[in-house]
Amino acid sequence: MVVYIILLTLVTTHHCVAATDKLNPPSPDKATTLTYPHMQKKNDFARVKPTATCGMREDGKTPWLVIIKDLSKSQNTSTAILQGSIGGGTLIHPSVVLCAAHSAQSPAPQLQVLTGLAGGAGDNVQMWSVIETVLHENFNPMNAHNDIALLFLSEPMKLSRSLGVACLPPADAAPRARCEAYEWSQTGTDGHRGVKTVDVPVLNHQECQEKYRNTRLGRYFILDQSFMCAGGERGRDVCAGDGGFPLVCPAENGRVAQFGIVVWDIECGNHGNPSVYVNVTRFRGWIDRQIGSRGLDTTIYALEQ
Ligand SMILES: *[C@@H]1O[C@H](CO)[C@@H](O)[C@H](O)[C@H]1NC(C)=O
Ligand SMILES: *[C@@H]1O[C@H](CO)[C@@H](O)[C@H](O)[C@H]1NC(C)=O
């Protein structure tokens, strides 16, 4: 059986965040200097207090949302800042972005990460270079199974109120019944686009597979175990253009944790089909191993800390 799915990638032509004057590309020499201030002696990790609390939001802003851009797809880096956008992502460590593998397939030097876009055009947009991309070894670009990747940045960000990290839930955590997805939308009368949150229900694996068996995917459709589903309420869902953005769910102390990464859907928002996400808890061990093996602190994004 041939399964047709639509991988969600950012539709760059509709983005017009005009913040070029605030563009702050890293200087070329920084790209070769690797400094990780959070890195202590390896054995000290357990005692290092994270410099920022993950998953905190102020004023409804989501300081960990990023846009991934492929420089080879933007003819002009100086004019439209979002030209060449290939997906969204989440900052989970001052120098690591969690994203969908389908938006991390270009060689690292071609990729850039934009921060400061979540709050709309008024934010301070910054660009960061990527030095290494790590795609999940079982990622299958044909059917998007295991569609998860990490981007390692050339320098760690200085975290602040407007630049923060998301929390990841423990591997055995279950999401709440309703969570929050993100979509690009018009945020103001000025016509600028920004990120809007959408309240969505979480479906269990069986329910989701049933829904998709009633679509053109057919009654033998198998929803891969690397996926989870949320959404499907009419007029309230994420759509093409939101690929790579997180699904976050409420956690303790007013924090939120990322349970999903938007991957695909069919006829989004209109026909009751939920959106399909990477099930992030399933990959928590993989994420920790990749980050830990590069000598970086894996407690920064840990909700259980
Ligand atoms: C690229 O930028 C230059 C100068 O900023 C401009 O003259 C040119 O028209 C731009 N090209 C495209 C394809 O946007
Ligand atoms: C995500 O994967 C874990 C581990 O396989 C599983 O226990 C959990 O039910 C999945 N979550 C959802 C929402 O499907």
From TrEMBL:
Transmembrane segments: none annotated. It holds the Pfam family Trypsin. Residues 1-18 form the signal peptide. InterPro entries: Peptidase_S1_PA (IPR009003), Peptidase_S1_PA_chymotrypsin (IPR043504), Peptidase_S1A (IPR001314), Ser/Thr_Proteases_Immune/Dev (IPR051487), Trypsin_dom (IPR001254). Residues 53-292 form the Peptidase S1 domain. Keywords: Disulfide bond, Signal. Belongs to the peptidase S1 family. CLIP subfamily. This is Phenoloxidase-activating factor 2. It comes from Bicyclus anynana (Squinting bush brown butterfly). The gene is LOC112054579.
